[in-house]
Amino acid sequence: MIELFARLNPKSINQVGSTSTPLIEITDLCGVLAKLGEQHSWYIYAMIEQRRSYNMDLLHKYCQQVILQEMLLRKFKSKLVKPSEFAYGITKAVIYSHFHSKGKCPKCNGLGRIGTKKCEKCEGSGNKEYSHEEKVSYGFPMRKDLSRQWYRQSCNHYDQFVECLLIELRNDLFFELDIIKKQALQYKRDEENADLFDDGD
After folding, report:
1. Do residues 39 and 130 touch, judged by C-beta distance below 8 A?
2. What are the φ/ψ torsions at residue 113 (nearest 5 degrees)?
3. What residues contact residue 132 under an 8 Å CB cut-off, 6+ apart?
């Protein structure tokens, strides 16, 4: 359902169009973004490629600050990488893997859940995971001394922290859209019921 936000991008509106009158209007989509924090707008506009590099940069800076705060809380300091470089690299790797899916998670088939439980393999994202080696090469391209083992041991907590943050943003959007959809369906039913009892006078 989150793909409905693509209607906010004039370049993709024809691809998302429907022959029937949509239950959720563009004004509803804008209302959702206005209700939630600005990081939700950055997420959506990055997703639908509306000023993508600009919004991706804002989302990156937001996640980077969250990582730095988490590092302070945990009193963590990498022995090989400066704190700012550490947070920048992990954020870059996670955001890239989040928005550039390698395909569906083979364990949950892209659902993000197995039954009622979150899929442990993809952490609920529904996407096939990038390897630690791929994340090192993308997040820290100039550091040939960093290994996948280093990423797993030093970065994994913060990697999952950012991924969960991005999934939370997406879930917030799903939740708000679901509320609007239910309200629209109820309004439509009420109108249909009113027509049934209309005596035509």
Report:
1. no
2. -140, 150
3. 148, 149, 151, 152, 156
Per-residue pLDDT for 80 more than 90? yes
Where residue 131 falls (left for φ over 0; alpha for ψ -120 to 50; beta otherwise) is beta
Give CA angle at 66 (60, 68), nearest 5°.
100
Would you say the pTM of this structure is higher than 0.85?
no
The CA-CA-CA angle for residues 70, 72, 76, to 5°, reads: 90
Helices 38-47 and 156-196 sit at what angle, rounded to 10 degrees? 90
Q: How many CB atoms lie within 10 A of CB 90?
A: 26
- With beta carbons less than 8 A apart as the criterion, state whether 173 and 43 touch: yes
Joined together, the tokens standing for residue 34 give 């206005």
Contact predicate 6/129, CB 8 Å: no
Residue 184 confidence (pLDDT) above 80: no
